[in-house]
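Minutes, project check-in
Item: structure for the 184-residue chain
Input as provided by the requester:
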Amino acid sequence: MAATRYIAFLRAVNVGGHTIRMDELRDVFARAGFTGVETFIASGNVIFHAPARAGVSLEKKIEAALLTRFQYEVCTFVRTAAEVSEVACREPFPAKRIASARAFVVGFLREPLTVAQGKTLETFTSDVDAFRTEGREMYWLCRVGQGESEFSNARFEKTLGVRATFRGINTVRRLAAKYPAERG
C-alpha cells in the first residue's frame, strides 16, 4: 500500500506547563511505525508518512502513543498534505478584510461543526472577530491581536463542546509550501 504524507496538528504541545522536545516527539512518531518523520516549529506540527486511507485511526494511534510517552492527553488533528494545501489556499474572508486584520487563524477540528454548533459560533462574531467554517476547519479573522480578543480556544471548546487546535494562516501556508502533496 502506498504511503501518504500527513501533517499532525497537536494541541497543547509546549504550552500550559507541558514541554516536549521535538526530538522526543519525532521519536514517538517513529516508534509508532511512521516514516519520514519531521517537526515544523516547536508548536506541535509533525509531518510523517503512513499508509493511504488511514484516516481517524491515525489520530487515535498518535494520541495513544503520546499519552503513553508523556502521560497527558494531546488531542491530535491529522490532515493529508493535499488537505493542508487546500486550507492554505482558502480565502474565507474578503482580501481587504484579511489585509487589515492583525490575526488570521485556522482552527482544526475532528469533524465539521453541526448546524447548532455553527449557530453558536456565530454568537462570537463582533466588531473584532469574524468566523467562517468549511469542512473540518474553522477560520477566525481578528481585527486586533488575538490576546486582545474575547474569543479564545478555551472559550470555543467550552461553549461548543468540541476540541480544536489553532494555527496562524502563515504557519499553515509555510507547511503547505514546504510539504506539498506527493504525486502518486
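Outcome recorded: Residues 32 and 65 are 7 Å apart (CA to CA).
No further action items on this chain.
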